[in-house]
Specification:
- By secondary structure, the chain is α/β, with parallel strands linked by helices.
- It has one domain: Rossmann fold (3-Layer(aba) Sandwich).
- The longest helix has 18 residues.
- The radius of gyration is 17 Å and the shape is globular.
- The model has no long low-confidence stretch (mean pLDDT 97).
- This is Bacillithiol biosynthesis deacetylase BshB1.
- One of its GO terms (molecular function) is deacetylase activity.
Length: 238
């Protein structure tokens, strides 16, 4: 199965928080999208790996993503080494995405920056034909995505570009709320975390509103890129 977009997240819910609206929009335009979570989020203060899996499945269905997998790297302790790179390379070659989305280049949670660099490095290495990988006993062809874009998470990183997600904010919020164990719930008796208070949940919307304000729309999501972004003509800029 070839995908147009393959989105990676260090934890289940990273992709939804950073790029859920963009994914919903691209799917509405006929693009095929997959999500790969690097860890099960098993070190999270609230919920459990099993609960997070159920929530991730629900979010997948809400967004209309065609495939979602979990590589089950160690939450908090995965590293950017050959073993982890090869696991990601196999997935890149399996799904042959034109675009890869991944974690913020720098963030509060150490796994986000680590995951960002790990996926980025794997995307480059995946294009080297002398690195041999197999799937179901067959040698995979080398494949390098055309571009790698990093979504924005906790920190207010200045985006290199933004995507207008007006009309898709509800889909984003619903996908985020699928992770009911993680976010604000007035009836929850679990310990509080930086992402479990009302302010964080509200920030999902007001950040999108602020980025939308900057481009004259209702909502937007921001991304950084690894090379100079280009457009065909001046008229493609909003």
């Amino acid at each position: 199965m070839k995908l147009d977009i393959l989105a990676f997240g260090a934890h289940p819910d990273d992709v939804e928080l950073g790029a859920g609206g963009t994914i919903a929009k691209e799917i509405s335009l006929g693009k095929t999208v997959g999500i790969i979570d690097l860890t099960q989020g098993e070190l999270g203060t609230r919920g459990s790996a099993e609960i997070r899996h159920q929530e991730a499945t629900k979010a997948k269905e809400l967004l209309g993503v065609v495939v979602r997998e979990n590589l089950k790297f160690r939450d908090g302790f995965f590293v950017n080494d050959e073993t982890h790179q090869l696991a990601i390379i196999k997935k890149i070659r399996q799904y042959q995405p034109d675009i890869v989305l991944c974690n913020a280049i720098d963030d509060r949670h150490i796994d986000h920056g680590k995951g960002s660099k790990l996926v980025s490095d794997a995307c480059f290495l995946s294009g080297l034909r002398r690195i041999e990988t197999t799937l179901d006993g067959k040698v995979q062809s080398a494949w390098r995505p055309k571009v790698v874009y990093h979504y924005i998470q906790w920190k207010n990183i200045i985006p290199d570009f933004v995507v207008d997600i007006t009309g898709f904010m509800e889909a984003k919020v619903n996908a985020v709320l699928a992770y009911s164990s993680q976010f604000y719930d007035s009836n929850s008796n679990e310990p509080t975390t930086p992402i479990s208070d009302r302010n964080f949940l509200d920030s999902v919307t007001y950040r999108a509103q602020d980025l939308g304000r900057l481009i004259g729309t209702d909502f937007a999501e921001g991304f950084t890129c690894e090379r100079v972004a280009a457009v065909d003509t001046l008229f493609n800029l909003k």
